[in-house]
Amino acid sequence: MPKISPPPQKNRSSKASLSFWLALALPLALLLAVLNWVGFATLLAPWQAMSKSALLLAVALLALTQIIRTLRIYRYFFIRLRGHFWATLRLSIWHNLMNNLLPMRSGEAAFPVLMWRYFQIEVSASLPGLFWFRLLDLQVLMVLVLLAGGRWINLSGLVLYPLLAGLIILPFVVYYLRDLIFRLLVAIPLSKTQRHFRAGRLWLLKALRSLPHSGLVLLESVGWTWANWVLKLTVMAWVLMQFVDINFFQGLLGAIGGDLTSVLPVHAPGGFGTFEAGVSAALFSTVDDSKALLAAAVNLHLFVLGTAILAALLALLLPRP
């Protein structure tokens, strides 16, 4: 029987290289098209008008969110990370940069890789922690979206306030009922044909497995998550207000819209295009000048990305364990 030879490695590497350069060239071409339409002078003008001390404060506060995210990781894995706070900060900063730069949330892979490289923490331990952090992030974003946009989408108080209260207490209810929920999920009989239900049950079981091992760690995780997002989105909303004529709650919606695009499967490298689309989609009904709105979205994106890159460069000075 004739042997089937595998395809040449050269062809594979050529296709991978082509995909990489296309993924890099498309967002850059989009950025150049935006610059050509908006005009470089229009894009630069708000930066020149902004107070330098206020800008430095905004950069410092956004950098502070890196410390807060590090504390969340450090306390969740405290038994393994005790005495390695600065190395954990280095890990958190680089993980954040990878999430900003790589498409389709593939930067999340940096977390388990760095946790193993720095601290020899197995993927089976680091991934549930990361999953827990992302569930908390989603919960906080949903609450903030309802707070900032609940009135805008005409939700009555009878619906809005119970929904907010339910979302806020949800992690605590699930934590204290986790054993009961786990047993009920496992006991549900599902046939092989019910694939969607089986996948949903598996997802819920993973979520329960990711819960912290103590109530104190649960409280700390929730607290650091809220502190991170409130500070980050407040800074982003204020920066966005410097670029376009909107109020704070509109700026908050725009900031959330831009940040949520990072989880989209079409998220471009560096988020160029998708981030701006998220900001614009959140504010298109409140800002009449589409050119000014797009310029503001680009400037906010450059601020966030520039701060992340600057933090990563400074993180090179931090020690490894």
Structure, explained:
The protein is mainly α. Helix content is 77%, strand content 0%. It has 14 helices and no strands. α1 (9-38) packs across α14, α7 (123-149) crosses α11 and α11 crosses α14 (290-315). The radius of gyration is 22 Å and the shape is globular.
Number of helices: 14
Low-pLDDT parts are none
What percent of residues adopt helix (DSSP H or I)?
over 70%
Overall residue-averaged pLDDT value:
82
Structural class: mainly alpha
What's this, in brief?
With about 325 residues, the protein is mainly alpha-helical.
What is the element layout, followed by pairings?
Layout: H1 9-38, H2 40-49, H3 52-76, H4 78-81, H5 85-101, H6 110-119, H7 123-149, H8 157-176, H9 178-187, H10 195-209, H11 215-243, H12 248-260, H13 274-283, H14 290-315
Features:
mainly alpha; 321 residues; 14 helices
